[in-house]
Specification:
The chain is α+β, with helices and mostly antiparallel strands. The protein has 2 domains: 24-162, D-3-phosphoglycerate dehydrogenase, domain 3 (60s Ribosomal Protein L30, Chain: A, 2-Layer Sandwich); 183-424, 2-methylcitrate dehydratase PrpD (Orthogonal Bundle). Helices cover 54% and strands 10% of the residues. The strands form 2 sheets. Strands 3-2-4-5-6-7 form a 6-stranded mixed β-sheet. Strand 4 (127-134) and strand 5 form a beta hairpin.
């Protein structure tokens, strides 16, 4: 792909938008970011906090530890962490520098102030509305469609910022158009790109995400899925790729205060797209630049597959990242478009439909399963085996199958998503 090709510039810009650092699960961190920004606009400590959140936000924040809070979970903790100790200028690292004294202040604020959570009205999938009040002063701030997209700031009823239309279908306006993406174009880009256009972003991803995976294997985090896999399944590269990725999630979901580089708005997806590829690159002894190309491919394939599904849904995002990692492993083994495409189809046919029931320790196990599907997809192709068009949701051609997965995740699983949220919030009927 020539650098004069508009798709080339779009791919580089997409990576710039996606490969950003975040500390902690990105949904509670988005709440903390919005709360910190609202506190900045208010100009003083609020007397009360109201967070209105869409069902998917409630689902993804309910069970995950908010880092730098001393083990607190939930929307209230995320919002108060942003109010008391957040630095909005750090965006998704908003609570990366919290002192021990501030951790105590967060707990004290939760005990002594009114902090309420309510369902957001409307059908916007990604929606956070934060209202802070102090005396006769108030600030209302809204983040919609993706984690850093502040679309409204009001102070004392006066609009200070209003940008863009909020998109109920999670279209993520404001980001570079993803319609230029295809598996063939991604493979072409990765093979021909000037590495210096992506090196800084991807090398930081390799450094950050592998470091948290090592931490997950080193210490006691969550359900320790990574350690369980190593103990009972062994140390073969096919297992190592799974357990290192799972270990990164073990640590991240349980409050580890190390940053990760996210993909498609998710740290778990950023870990899943990169860590198995790093492990295979080391095992195969490829040079560093080839590793960078392979991780770039995994990232872009993950983004491509997630675009049709949307930022948040009932479809587990680790599936896309695990399949992307499997395809990048095919590339590391000398594969081109054919190997990458068949790996993706085989993997998607195997594991699509795994549900997202929020961020929590079991995400690590789902990551392990998704990476396994990606690796199986590649080895199926090596053995001359494949799932064919007309078999279930598989359609002839990788793009057609990816389109089907997008429909399944965005539309087909909507009621599944609602039922998951009802179950998690105790509203499910026994009838």
């Amino acid at each position: 792909m020539e650098r004069t090709d508009q798709r080339y510039h779009n791919f580089v810009q997409i990576l710039r938008e996606e490969l950003v650092p975040a500390m902690g699960c990105t949904e509670p961190i988005a709440i903390a970011y919005g709360a910190a920004k609202a506190r900045e606009v208010l100009g003083c400590e609020p007397e009360s906090v109201l967070v209105e959140a869409s069902g998917n936000i409630i689902k993804n924040v309910k069970s995950v530890v908010v880092p730098n809070t001393g083990g607190l979970k939930g929307i209230e903790a995320a919002a108060v962490a942003g109010v008391v100790a957040g630095d909005a200028g750090k965006i998704l690292e908003v609570i990366s520098e919290v002192t021990e004294e501030q951790k105590q202040e967060i707990r004290a604020y939760l005990d002594s102030h009114e902090v309420k959570v309510a369902p957001a009205e409307g059908d916007v999938i990604f929606d956070i509305i934060i209202t802070l009040r102090a005396g006769d002063q108030s600030v209302r701030l809204r983040i919609a469609d993706y984690h850093t997209n502040i679309v409204l700031i009001e102070k004392n009823g006066e609009t200070l910022l209003k940008s863009g239309a909020v998109v109920a279908a999670d279209k993520a306006d404001g980001l570079t158009d993803r319609s230029c993406m295809s598996v063939e174009a991604i493979v072409d880009f990765v093979n021909t790109m000037d590495l210096e256009d992506v090196r800084g972003m991807v090398e930081r991803q390799i450094e950050y995400n592998y470091a948290i995976a090592e931490e997950g294997m080193r210490n006691d985090w969550g359900a320790n899925i990574g350690k369980v896999l190593r103990e009972y399944y062994g140390d073969d590269i096919k297992i190592r790729a799974r357990y290192m990725a799972a270990a990164g999630s073990d640590a991240r979901m349980s409050g580890c205060e190390m940053p990760v580089i996210i993909v498609s708005g998710s740290g778990n997806q950023g870990i899943t797209a990169s860590v198995p590829v790093i492990e295979y690159a080391k095992e195969l002894g490829v040079d560093h630049d080839t590793m960078v190309r392979a991780v770039t491919m995994s990232d872009l394939l993950t983004i491509h597959m997630k675009t049709g599904i949307g930022r948040l849904s009932a479809y587990c995002g680790a599936v896309s990242a695990g399949c992307g990692a499997g395809a990048a492993i095919a590339y590391l083994n000398g594969g081109g478009f054919t190997e990458v495409a068949h790996t993706l189809v085989n993997a998607l046919a195997t594991i699509s439909g795994m549900i997202c029931d929020g961020a929590k320790p079991s995400c690590a196990a789902k990551i392990a399963a998704a990476v396994d599907a990606g690796i199986l997809g590649y080895h199926m192709f090596r053995s001359g085996q494949q799932f064919r068009g007309g078999e279930g949701i598989v359609t002839k051609g990788v793009e057609a199958t990816i389109h089907n997965i997008g429909r399944l995740g965005r539309f087909g699983m909507r009621e599944t998503d609602r039922e998951i949220i009802r179950i998690m919030t105790g509203q499910a009927s026994n009838g």
